[in-house]
Amino acid sequence: MKHFILLSIGLFLSSVLFAQKEIELDFNIKGSLRDSYTKKKLEGAKVVLFGPGGRKTEFVTPKNGKFHFDNDEFGNPYLDAGFDYKLVIEMKGYKTIEHEESTKDLDQSETFQLDFLMERIKKF
Q: What CATH architecture does domain 25-118 belong to?
């Protein structure tokens, strides 16, 4: 009987601890930029992520035209659960792109794959 009581208490405590364990969600943004006419990868575009509390993170695209927002140099995520985010992409000679994403109401981790074609500004 003593073993049964100890076993029952152990199972109860482990279920309480498991239930209290917070599910950690992981959100990322990955994408690429190309010229809408030539389809060439765009190097040197500024991609800015605006987050909660005025948080702002900038990324400049390398030769492959790709960008990503996952974790900073300390391992902290750029995107947290329950917030709205705005992406602004600028490059000289091209129209600015604005795009919004949200982690509100998401109950599982997600990587937002965003691939954009940038339009050149027409010269008259």
A: Sandwich (2.60)
